[in-house]
Write a structure and sequence with these properties.
Layout lengths: L10 E6 L19 H19 L5 E6 L6 E3 L4 E5 L2 E4 L4 E7 L3 E7 L4 E7 L1 H6 L1 H11 L7 E5 L12 H4 L7 E2 L6 E2 L1 H11 L7 E3 L14 H4 L6 E7 L2
Parallel strand pairs: 2-4, 2-6, 3-5, 9-12
Antiparallel strand pairs: 1-13, 5-8, 6-13, 7-8, 7-9, 10-11
């Protein structure tokens, strides 16, 4: 997928899908490795891929160990940031990234105040409040919600997101379809409405409603492929 917000020279973001695998490379998880050395090697692999993607050899990258929670951390240096599902920064040239395979990657940017965030938003994190937390953390370092531009990546669609009652009951009923054998949750719409509720303007949101489960050629899906599933990366950074 091409860069997002290409009309903003100081703002760079992309949601990188399976196209990179055609060139023999793939993103590696920094969440699963048991040893720090392996996680650092995975991080460097990912940094190398995005450096080539953006044609910026000196680009640095920060990622976190994603745990499906609502923790959002501030970072001003590359490397592993610990356990979190969102990262915010105001450091030019430092990219923040998240890996997804059915969850949504949210890329948020206040280009005026040069504050950006990358958020891993699955159903657990979304219900727990990771979206308002990300906006709050951006505000703490100078962002203004009405200036935030947002990109929402493909994630699993309502048609494919069959869940048990223990999950469905945690969502407001308007996001749950109960016409089938089991409930189906509209995670895409829930995340979108959470962004609007937290001050991000509808006109500032780019929303890709493709379903990860139903687009095997271009998108990874953990629900479809299980442990064999790869990951897509959402990444954002600003320059001086």
């Amino acid at each position: 997928m091409p860069e997002i917000w290409t009309d903003r020279k100081e703002l760079h973001a992309a949601f990188i899908t399976r196209e990179i695998e055609e060139r023999g490379v793939c993103f590696q998880s920094v969440t699963d490795p048991e040893h720090t050395e392996d996680a650092l090697m995975a991080l460097e692999n990912n940094r190398s891929i995005i450096s080539g993607y953006f044609d910026r050899p000196d680009l640095t990258l920060c990622m976190a160990k994603q745990v499906h929670g609502k923790q959002v951390l501030y970072t001003d240096k590359p490397g592993l940031a610990g356990e979190a599902d969102g990262l915010v920064t105001d450091r030019p040239g430092l990219a923040v990234g998240v890996l997804v395979a059915d969850c949504a990657a949210l890329l948020l940017a206040d280009r005026v105040n040069k504050v950006v965030a990358a958020v891993h938003a699955g159903w657990r994190g979304a219900i727990a409040g990771i979206i308002p937390e990300a906006v709050r953390q951006m505000e703490k370092i100078g962002a203004e919600p009405d200036l935030i531009q947002a990109y929402m990546s493909p994630c699993i669609s309502q048609e494919a997101f069959e869940v048990g009652e223990e999950v469905a009951s945690r969502f407001p009923e308007r996001f749950v379809d109960r016409t089938g054998r089991k409930p189906h949750v509209d995670l895409q719409e829930y995340i979108y409405e959470e962004m609007l509720k937290n001050g991000i303007s509808d006109s500032s949101v780019i929303r890709d409603t493709a379903c990860t489960f139903r687009n095997e050629k271009s998108l990874h899906s953990h629900r479809r492929d299980g442990f064999r599933s790869g990951r897509m990366l959402g990444v954002v950074f600003v320059t001086e």
